[in-house]
């Protein structure tokens, strides 16, 4: 639930770290780079995995018509 420190109450649920997408792929790519003296030509497989993961995450995060400006513009057109 929460934690009371002194006279203050902290909600510990808000302080949790959110899941970081593509972290494993980035770690494997960076470790490959460090093992190969920053030569990314030898790390093509890790690089492609990271790229596809990032592309998938950006596709997930895009929302069609979900922003506040979209709804305000849509309502403004109906009011005219």
TrEMBL record:
Q: Which residues form the IMS import disulfide relay-system CHCH-CHCH-like Cx9C domain?
A: 18-55
In terms of InterPro entries, this protein maps to: CX9C, Cys_alpha_HP_mot_SF, Ribosomal_mS37_fun
Q: Looking at the Swiss-Prot or TrEMBL record, what is one Pfam family this protein matches?
A: CX9C
Picking any one GO biological process from the record gives: mitochondrial translation
One GO cellular component assignment for this chain's record is: mitochondrion
Species source reads Salix dunnii
Q: Which domain of life is it from?
A: Eukaryota
Query: In Gene Ontology terms, what is one molecular function of this protein?
Result: structural constituent of ribosome
Protein name (Swiss-Prot/TrEMBL): IMS import disulfide relay-system CHCH-CHCH-like Cx9C domain-containing protein
